[in-house]
Amino acid sequence: MYGYSIMEENTIVNRVAGSGLITLNLEDLHPRAEIAEIDLKQLLVGGFMLREKDLREFIRSHDWQQYQGKIVAVHCSVDAVVPTWAYMLLSIALQPFSLLTVFGNRQSALTTAYHDALRKIDWTEYRGAKVVVKGCSDVHVPESVFVEAAGHLREVAASIMYGEPCSTVPLYKKANSGG
C-alpha cells in the first residue's frame, strides 16, 4: 500500500526508498528570473503597421534598465506588418540588460528558459539509473520540456517512469544487452 510494506510486526519498510529510483523534478528548472514582455502592438500606426521612425524613438527613449536580469519576451500580439529587423533592433537594445531575450510571448520565454536549463544538465549522471520524472508540480512545466527530458534520458537511463515514486507510469526500459 502506497510504497510501504510491513516486514515484521511493528516494522515498516519504505520500498520506494530502497528501490534505487532517482527522481527528476523538472520544476527545479523553473526560471528564477522574472519574465517581462515587450509587445509592439503599442507602437503600431493604425493598429497594423510599424514605422521605423517610431520604433527608433521608442528604443532611444525607453527605460531599458527595467529589464535588468529578466527574461524578456518580444512580440506583437496582433496581426500586423512587423519587419524582422524590428525584433532585431529590440534584441540589440535589450542585450546589455536582459538575462535572455526571446521572440514570442511569455509562454515562449518560459519554454525557452526551461530548454536552456535542460541543455545544461549532465545527463551522464542518469546512466544506468531507474528515473522517475516527477509529474506533479507547483509551477507550470511545459509539455515540450517533458518531451525533451525523455529524449535525453532515453540515451542513458535503464528505465524511465512518469509520476510519483509510489505511483508511476512506466515509459521506457532499456533492453537487456547481455546474452
How does this model look, in words?
The protein has helices at 52-61, 84-94, 106-119, 143-156; strands at 4-6, 12-14, 21-24, 35-39, 71-75, 100-103, 130-134, 159-164, 167-173. The protein has 179 residues and is of the alpha/beta class. The chain has 2 domains: 4-31 and 124-173, no CATH class; 35-98, no CATH class. The radius of gyration is 23 Å and the shape is elongated. The two termini are 36 Å apart.
Topology:
Blueprint (H helix, E strand, L loop, with lengths): L3 E3 L5 E3 L6 E4 L10 E5 L12 H10 L9 E5 L8 H11 L5 E4 L2 H14 L10 E5 L8 H14 L2 E6 L2 E7 L6
Helix pairs in contact: 1-2, 3-4
Keywords for this entry:
2 domains; 179 residues; disordered N terminus; 9 strands; alpha/beta; three-stranded parallel sheet; 4 helices; elongated; four-stranded mixed sheet
The DSSP helix count reads: 4
Strand order of the largest sheet: 3-7-8-9
- Average pLDDT score: 89
State the separation between the terminal residues, measured CA to CA. 36 Å
